[in-house]
């Protein structure tokens, strides 16, 4: 198993997409993991400097086939529908609209002109939407989701998600990667200190003197100019939405955070406004024709 970067939110469980070959506990702490098979004997406890903690290992059954229908009971009313068996792949993203038609697909191979990374990111983001609650947008970059958000206001959840994406990109700033940590600083403390640096609250909500105690030498906080310059370097981000984007400010907001490709079902009476906004910003817009609502 490769090194895993734990999420700062919801660390009780950890899904792993590859078979686990090394089950020995190292620096991560979580209560259970869900993995695609194990080639080792999972350890039952985690010696983490505190009391030994139980870890539950759950293996995925590769032969499992879900039922064709799903049932739910809502206030005594039983509802049944066909399960969402949509397959998300490169062909999901062939309907490029607007004048930025820079995607040429060859159905006998892989998409030609849209780079493979963008297609992979669109697939990752859209699969994440398939299993998320309705009214969700998801940003992806370099093969992994940056964030996702679920709100009744698409404009609000897109803005909130973009802030998460912004902080994730700031964590890759050279100054952040080169922080001179004291050897005694633990993993969680490092992550918290980085969050403070990237969120822009240093000197406001958190005192600089308190924050500096983690380092072997004085560290200069990121200035607004540093943040703006670094954020401008983030490009190639994709955004996928499980419902049509209703307003052009959704596109204006996405552009601020390096989004270059947007996929959504289309079909809104405001489609022309969305297409026009994407054309203005040089964003490739794709209509999937696929609504991935999950209630």
TrEMBL record:
Signal peptide from the UniProt entry:
none
Q: Which GO terms describe its biological process?
A: 'de novo' IMP biosynthetic process
Q: Gene Ontology terms, cellular component aspect?
A: cytosol
Q: Which GO terms describe its molecular function?
A: IMP cyclohydrolase activity; phosphoribosylaminoimidazolecarboxamide formyltransferase activity
Q: InterPro entries attached here?
A: AICAR_Tfase_dup_dom_sf (IPR024051), AICAR_Tfase_insert_dom_sf (IPR024050), Cytidine_deaminase-like (IPR016193), PurH-like (IPR002695)
> Origin, by domain of life?
Eukaryota
Instruction: State the protein's name.
Output: Bifunctional purine biosynthesis protein PurH
- Origin species, per record, is Trichostrongylus colubriformis
């Amino acid at each position: 198993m490769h090194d895993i970067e734990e999420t700062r939110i919801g660390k009780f469980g950890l899904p792993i997409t590859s078979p686990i070959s090394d089950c020995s506990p190292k620096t991560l702490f979580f209560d259970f993991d869900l993995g695609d098979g194990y080639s080792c004997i999972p350890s039952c406890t985690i010696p983490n400097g505190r009391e030994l903690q139980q870890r539950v290992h759950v293996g995925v059954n590769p032969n499992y086939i879900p039922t064709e229908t799903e049932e739910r009971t809502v206030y005594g009313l039983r509802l049944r529908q066909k399960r969402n068996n949509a397959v998300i792949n490169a062909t999901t993203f062939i309907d490029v609209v607007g004048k930025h038609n820079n995607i040429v697909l060859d159905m006998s191979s892989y998409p030609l002109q849209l780079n493979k990374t963008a297609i992979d990111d669109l697939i990752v983001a859209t699969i994440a939407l398939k299993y998320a609650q309705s009214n969700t947008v998801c940003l992806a970059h370099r093969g992994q989701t940056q964030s996702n958000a679920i709100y009744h206001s698409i404009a609000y959840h897109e803005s909130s998600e973009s802030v998460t994406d912004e902080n994730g990109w700031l964590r890759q700033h050279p100054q952040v990667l080169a922080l001179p940590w004291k050897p005694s600083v633990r993993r969680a403390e490092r992550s918290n200190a980085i969050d403070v640096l990237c969120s822009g609250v240093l000197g406001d909500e958190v005192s600089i003197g308190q924050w500096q105690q983690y380092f072997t030498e004085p560290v200069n906080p990121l200035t607004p100019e540093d943040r703006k310059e670094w954020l401008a370097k983030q490009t190639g981000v994709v955004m996928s939405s499980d419902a049509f984007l209703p307003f052009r400010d959704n596109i204006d907001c996405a552009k601020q955070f390096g989004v270059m490709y947007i996929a959504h079902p289309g079909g809104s009476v405001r489609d022309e406004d969305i297409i026009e906004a994407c054309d203005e910003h040089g964003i490739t817009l794709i209509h999937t024709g696929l609504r991935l609502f999950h209630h």
